[in-house]
Specification:
Residues 355-492 form the Splicing factor Cactin C-terminal domain. Pfam families: Cactin_mid, CactinC_cactus. Belongs to the CACTIN family. This is Splicing factor Cactin. The protein is an alpha+beta fold. The protein folds into two domains: 59-267, no CATH class; 320-485, no CATH class. 39% of the residues lie in helices and 11% in strands. It contains 14 helices and ten strands. It has helices at 3-10, 46-53, 57-85, 91-99, 123-128, 132-148, 152-172, 177-184, 186-193, 198-213, 220-255, 259-267, 320-331, 378-383; strands spanning 338-341, 344-345, 368-373, 393-402, 414-418, 437-443, 451-456, 460-461, 471-475, 478-485. The strands form two sheets. Strands 1, 3, 4, 8, 9 and 10 form a six-stranded antiparallel beta sheet that branches. A four-stranded antiparallel beta sheet has the order 2-7-6-5, with no helix packed on it. A hairpin with a 2-residue loop joins strand 9 (471-475) and strand 10. Helix 7 (152-172) packs across helix 11 (220-255). 20% of the residues are buried.
Length: 492
Amino acid sequence: MNPDRQAMIDGSKSPRKDRDRDITAPRYDSSNRIAKPYRQPPPRNNATAAAGRYLTQDQQSEQFIADEDKFVLKQAKKKSDIRVREQRARPIDYLAFGLRFIDPDRDAFDDDEDDVEIQIPSPEAVVQGLNEAKLKELEEDVQSYHSLEHNPRNKEYWAALLTLCSDRLQKLKPQGPEGRAVTSVASDVDRILSPKTLEQLEALERQIKAKLRSDEAIDTDYWEALLKSLLVYKSKATLKNMCAVIKEARVEMLRARDPERASALEASDGFSGGVPDLSSGSSKAVTKPAASTTAAPASSSAPPPGTARFASAGNEDFSQATKALYDREVARGVGEGEEIFAAEEAVPGIQKPLWADKYRPRKPRYFNRVLMGYEWNKYNQTHYDHDNPPPKVVQGYRFNVFYPDLIDKIKAPTFKIIREHGRRKGESFAPAGKEDTCLIRFIAGPPYEDIAFRIVDREWDYSAKKERGFKSSFDKGILQLHFQFKKVYYRK
């Protein structure tokens, strides 16, 4: 008989091997392995668990800043690549483009097959080929890359370039007594340091520091000048090592496509012998979103050019504070349904400001967007569909005008709507199927001139919605005016 059935018949008289066992002991089962008693896991502290899941406000702020800096750096590298490919590069672009071949953080989708064949000058040649003004500009650009970069090798690359820029600027300045002392030993310094490798220079640096700390009777001026120059030669050696790695990476990329050219590149130093003419023209003008320098037409009958581009003005504000604000806004890019907008026009009735004799007037820089989209009114719903949509229309604007150097920082800039030919708000002089336009004029105090743009004249939506909400503020040198037009709903 089955033992289990027999146990049911016997009831309490059934013989059990584990009758007298401890109830907390493992249960005996002849057909299974001995089961271990279940242990309740220790209770977790709710506060500890929450701390592991959530970041503090300071940590969230740090994470946001880090992500934003990473995005800005990525966009800056991408713009440098484009300018080099289009043969309108600035000095900083050549330096960034050369580093991309060994940059582990580069985006593979941004690579171009012909990049390896582009001839670029060596970093040291770029620095040596600039005048004082261009060199100061390059130093600021290199500093921006150095502050945003987190990769150790890339950061070392930009730090070495900063040292070379500083040394070159020092040599371009008029020499005082200290400069003449350095010049007197320049030939000896170059003879001693130029042939040495980076490891030998680091060893020599330790020896010189030990000699200066000792009580020996030495020529202190000579050894201090040698130690100061040693940092420059260490930077040159660092760049030399990185250039060798860049050359090797380019040779490997080219070997799969053209072995003969790869061999020729391997036999050379990996960089072009000559440096492009970097001293002519304004190097900052190419930082604009497009290469076109044609100003927007001033005709009042022309439609608002949503795809217009920025025009370079002779008195445009190129201060470093403005450049920082402008570059940050450009790095944000253009979102879906947005286009760059620069329908700038002459300010009507403008006169020479009273403060023009005291401050040099300059035009503020800006980065504006126009919001474009479809209007699905009854007519468009009847004649169009999503596969064959109607023409896009202007749905709003986002103005960002930069005033970082206002003399009177208490008085904020403002704006004013100007309707020509005596037309009032709500009136329309436009023919059927057309929309009225007006001028929006931005007004600020010295040293900034007024600027105006032609926009569509429709009623604004002043709601506080997150996406479509109205915004008019002046903070940290940026005048922001964001608005969209009211949607008109027709009822039967």
